[in-house]
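STRUCTURE REQUEST FORM
Protein name: Acyltransferase family protein
Source organism: Streptomyces tremellae
Requested output: structure tokens
Priority: standard
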Amino acid sequence: MTSAIPRSPGAVSGAGQAVAPKKREAFFDNAKYLAIVLVAVAHSWEPIMDGSRATKALYMVVYTFHMPAFIVISGYFSRSFAAKPHQMRRLVTGVAVPYIVFETAYSLLKWVGEKPHELSISLQDPWFLTWFLIALFVWRLTTPLWQAIRHPLPVALVVAALASFCPSIGNDLDLQRVLQFLPYFVLGLCLKPEHFQLVRRREVRLLSVPMFLFALAFSYWIAPSFASGWLFHNASAQQLDHAWWTGPLMELGLFCCSLLMTACFLAWVPGRSMWFTVLGAGTICGYLLHGFVIKTAGFAGVFDDHPWLSAPAGEAVVSVTAAVVVTALCTPPVRRAFRWATEPEMAWAFRGSK
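Status: completed
Returned output:
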């Protein structure tokens, strides 16, 4: 996403992260675009995958790495964030303000679409996909802390494990997700360019094929009994009707699986400029806007009124449609049209702004 994941470490871009004033790296733009397509497609499967073991298996595999990949890359490009005034300004305009705008917009959509029609706008309780913005805001604010301690990743894993069996954390700011996804962001802070070069080696690319096939087969095997809630990282073990001690075990296990699948995904991301590379700069629009399309379709009864969409052919149509829609939403014209909401300047709000 544009505001969430900048071009490269150094100066400032997007949501206050540190990036150097140099040419965008095609690899990361390609990764962002491909990941956002998977996000949209996976969201489109949710209303139609009940009763389809194969679709749930695909859903589970995609969910193990699409958001972890985004978060790791976000952390990687936040390494130089030191809470300097210009960085704080971009953090506010590139993350906090879009969160307020889109959380309000999604709340209005929910008010119109759900019955009974009850208007509830609470910035403390993110709905649907806006959680990522508030999480990114918190993660980036704490970046100086993670860079100051000796062993940040183990500490972050302990924090995530503790959160996984603490139902008292509640829903405010979706803190369960903030804490349980934290290790991926901290891992990104610890990575160096050579680590991304390592996963893009030919042997890793070849090994990723059987790994993906094994993941699909394993997911197909456990799909009927597996609770998808574990993949969302938004609830404690007790809230998922499991013993408290399963929380830390699942947290560590899913972290290992997600890193492995993320590496397999990145291994196949092209490093050269492609026709879709330019779309990587507009993934914030694709991410924030595609939800309106999916939720509106759901509220309008599209999925309920057309049961054929749950058949294999229908699922293929829904998947292709979601991919096309999110691709269109990532294009430069859409990005320019929504810049007022996703990347506002707001010079009037800051001291020393020209």
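Reviewer notes: The radius of gyration is 20 Å. The first helix runs from residue 26 to 45.
Form closed.
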